[in-house]
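Whether sequence alone determines local backbone shape is best considered at the level of individual chains. When preparing material for the folding task, we compiled for one chain both its residues and its backbone structure tokens. No coordinates are needed to read the tokens, only the vocabulary itself. For completeness, the protein is quoted in full, as a sequence line and a line of structure tokens:
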Amino acid sequence: MNDILKGLRIVEGSAFVAAPLGGMTLAQMGADVIRFDLIGGGLDYKRWPVTGDDKSIYWATMNKGKRSLAINLREAEGQEIIAALITAPGPEAGIFLTNLQVRPWLDYDALKARRDDLIMLKIIGNPDASVAVDYTVNARTGWPYVTGPEGHDGPINNVLPGWDLTCGLTAAIGLLAAERYRARSGQGQLVKLSLADVAYHLTGSLGYIGDVQVNGRTRPRIGNDMYGTFGRDFSTSDGRQIMLVIVTRRHVKALGEVTGLSARLKELEKARGVDLNLEADRWKVRSQLNEMVGAWFAGQTLAQAGAALTEAGILWGPFRTYEQMIEEDPFVSTDNPLFEDIDQPGIGRLLTPGSPLDFTALPRTEVARGPLLGEHSDEILSTILGMGDGEIGRLHDAGIIAGPEAA
């Protein structure tokens, strides 16, 4: 955590990945992010992974640093509270992030009528506002046909929700850009962000749309080989796998020296008429390189190979399961300032990451845990909307708001 955005207030109405991640990114930089959910939890409140008693580890960790308001949005009084909270006065307030289906009372124009400089960022699925999610977007952007082992027939989806994650980070950037524009001009605005457009933008920016249009081709399915250069997975003598990446001339020279293959690499260049200093030429002879280098790895343990490659300054990384990452990686521990071991109510002690951004102007602060659902309901209505204890008590009795669920 850090306080670089201290004073900024964002109201978040969200579910699943993109919008909650955008809000969490801002919260971990010190913004006051208030997430509202239905009493009893919204669509993602029980999302996996969960504990043995069905507490969502996902929900707790995706909402770190936020304040939680549990409210009955089916009643007009609950809707009025949320609209008032979004449009509450303050030079660094009046910012709304959502990916929920917008009802008339939550429409931008309706909220803007209450606060003219409102900033609202709305995450939508497709550019025409029709519904889409990460898996459906990924399915139609070409990536499943280049993911997976060489020779496989049919699409393979990536289990990492890359478009959701990128969309959430883009949403955080978009809100900060809109807030800067408002600070300079006094004008708020509606910002639309399409999940599908995020995928199209990045697919095009990586050159894969242009490759088809200019060259009439698409990259092949090549498993763990790196496209257009030399890099892939290799097995070591102790049954582990390692990823090797060769991207510079220095790497090529060092690889020959550390593996004892320098002379054979020269012979390969002469026989095939290639220059291994060039990425494209390394790609052309990757099968031969894989065979030669693979034989060296087969005679090394993971520890031996890793030590030799590190000393030579060659890029590599061990393949690990989640369990192996936690057990073996020195950076996945409290020795890394990113992490703290915190008590998450209802779940237990978790190694929990803060923001990966380390601002030198401000020290890191404590990593904040995820809220309990409705943990801050009373506090939010009191401090922001100025409600007294009697009014807050009435709202509880009427089932309009709720306090924290038992941990």
Q: What stands out?
A: The chain has 16 helices and twelve strands. The longest strand covers residues 32-38. The chain has a mean pLDDT of 97. The chain has two domains: 9-203+332-402, 241-318.
